[in-house]
Amino acid sequence: MYFSNHLIHSLRIKNQKTHGIFMQFKASISSLKVAWRKDPKLDQAIENDKKCNQCSRIVKEVLNEPGQVIPLHYLEKRRDRLRLTVKIKTFLDLNPGLFDLYMDRVRPKSEPVTFVRPSERLRQFLEEEKRIFVDNEFLLVSKLCKLLMMSKDKVVSADKLVQVKREFGFPNDFLVNLVPKYQEYFKLIGEPGEGRSFLQLVKWNPEFAKSVIEVRAEEESRLTGIRTRPAFNWKLPPGFFIRKEVREWIRDWMELPYISPYADVSHLDQSSREMEKRNVGVFHELLSLSLYKRIPIPILGKFSDEYRFSNAFSNVFTRHSGIFYTSLKCGIKTAMLREAYKDGELIERDPLLEIKDEFLKLLAEGHREKAERLRLQREMVQEDMKMMALSNNDLDYDKCEKELLEE
Questions:
Q1: Structural domains of the chain, with CATH
Q2: Residues 82-122: pLDDT tens digits?
Q3: In 9, 114, 288, 296, which residue has its Cα 20 to 30 A from 75's Cα atom?
Q4: CB neighbours of 365 closer than 8 A, spacing ≥ 6?
């Protein structure tokens, strides 16, 4: 259900007693308790990407090695850290086409061992990945500017940005290749990797200072000719209910003016409803900027200082369960944007997801070739069995003919 004007009107408080209950919850946001409920379709969206993410981790591990090669037994020792449940050799057999195996020596006089290196097909994919990054360079710049523009001092730890590059689709080398190209927007302070490096915003671009919600309201106003107020979409899955007093609190909270995540909120009290409105706006914008419209909550927590999140910020996602969903899939809490999904599938895909599409094609090609090799092997075995059967029949015929002659 969406919170339309009609629905908001229908939820208005009818009497003084109910108003008293509302005022109690208005006084303390932390008093609002909303039970968590599983959403299988959104959980499945995370499960669907599990295998692709696992393959990406292994590829990244090999590519980060000197010369982009690594002995197979070295990679096997890292299996737990890579969260791999099967042996590396089994993984390579299950995902052909990613790597080549060859024999070489770790040291000049040591015995040859099996090494792993990227396949030619994987190298072609990496070249295609570079092209996609180039084609979407302006999108990457706008994302990076927006992350800085939402922060309280327009400065974010460079090391933290590196930690979330996968969530937002930044290339591995964005600090050394992308940032220096746009000195009108960015200034890198310190050396990345030393824990004291920061990325600072140099220029404020008003075009970037519009949230997804504000852009949506502007577009709706343009199409209808009626001024539309920026507002969150509130939608719960079928069968999900929240308590009456919480609905009443949400109704009143939804009527508060929308606060842009790019607005200065230094004057707001951390425990106020207005600050809650702003925080929800920031989380909504962060998830909207992410590739999959979802981010693990521990990763969001790393930016508490930069974005003024409270220690109990994760409660926002369950308190506003019509806007967000907290998935517990894969043993980690992940905040997801409900409106971004329909039946567990993304409605609007980030242009950078073309990289994932190409990677899935690479995996699919390897699987098809493996299936074709297995088919040919089965046919050869069947053909050999037929030949053996024919040979045995010929032997039996010769034996029978000899016995008849002897009689």
A1: 5-31+210-348 (no CATH), 56-123 (3.30.420), 136-204 (1.10.10)
A2: 989 899 999 999 898 899 999 999 888 889 999 999 999 99
A3: 296
A4: 97, 121
